[in-house]
Amino acid sequence: MTDSQFVEYFERKVEDTIARHRLFSKRDKVVVAVSGGKDSTTALYVLHKLGYRVEAMLIDQLLGEYSRANKGNIKKFCEQLGVRLHVIPMRDEFGCSVCYMKDVLDKKGFRMNTCTICGVMRRSILNRHARNLKATKLVTGHNLDDEAQTFFMNMIHGNILLSAKLGPTTGVVRDKKFIPRVKPLYYCLEEETRKYSQIKNFPVQYEPCPCSLDSFRTIVKKNLNELEKQYSGVKLNIAESFLKVIPKLKTRYKKTGKLKTCQSCGEPSSQEKCKVCNLMELMKQKA
User: Which entry of 90, 231, 256, 266 is 20 to 30 Å from 5 by CA?
Assistant: First the structure.
């Protein structure tokens, strides 16, 4: 397959995913959550090329040179595309960086994975700011590898019901305060996204986040990649099999997962207090 053929194949796969799962239309205001990495940059580019009304949102995680390089790359890229970019510094939202939060929590005896803390904070920021921008859909750069990894992680941890929130459209319970998150790269392998971004010569860093190197996801990723090498199509089979059972998972989750309003911040939550407010309370506790 030539480079031009691959580009056409990849873009058609994204377009088919959008149509198959009715992710959004040309009438939607789509905000793409960008990080400066290959996946979200690729998603932004392809959706813009396909004619969707897109804006980009970057959460500056304040991870030293890694974050500075990502921010510079995506700013330049959005300027070239003519796409509006919204930069949200983590410190402006919570008064500190994720790394600082982890250090404080560790000192107080609350051992939490950096990726867990970051994920909770990022999801909250993305939803609130996408809502303020009056977005109708929030796009993430999650690919086929990400989905297969998350499904496996939920199984290993015995949290299979959490997988009800997965799929091309994230979430189960609909609420006006929740902006639906969608994944147009759902059927794209990580290596395919890498190849596309390299062919297009996108200004991105290919190194993983420095805080994720010792995460459980990294271990799962390594093992799934080995399986994929031995049995081609494993990741796609996982995703396709999962999509067959997700309707039942969503039905069961709706019966057990009642949506509430956080007593502290007023944001939608499955508990009396949302995960963000719980983390901030832990930060304030005395060591």
Answer: 231
* Residues 158-191: tens digit of each pLDDT: 877 777 778 898 876 677 788 999 999 999 999 9
Q: Distance between CA atoms of 71 and 90, rounded to whole angstroms?
A: 13
Nearest partner of 177 among 217, 127, 223, 142, judged by Cα: 127
Helix (H, G, I), strand (E, B) or coil at 186: coil
CATH architecture of 3-252: 3-Layer(aba) Sandwich (3.40)
Structure tokens at 156: 């290993």
Whole-angstrom CA distances from 277 to 232, 254, 262 are 43, 24, 8
Distance in angstroms (rounded) separating the CA atoms of residues 55 and 107:
39
Domain regions of the chain by residue span: 3-252
Which of 54-68, 76-90, 250-264 comes out lowest in average pLDDT?
A: 250-264
Strands 181-182 and 54-60: unpaired
pLDDT above 70 as % of the chain = 95
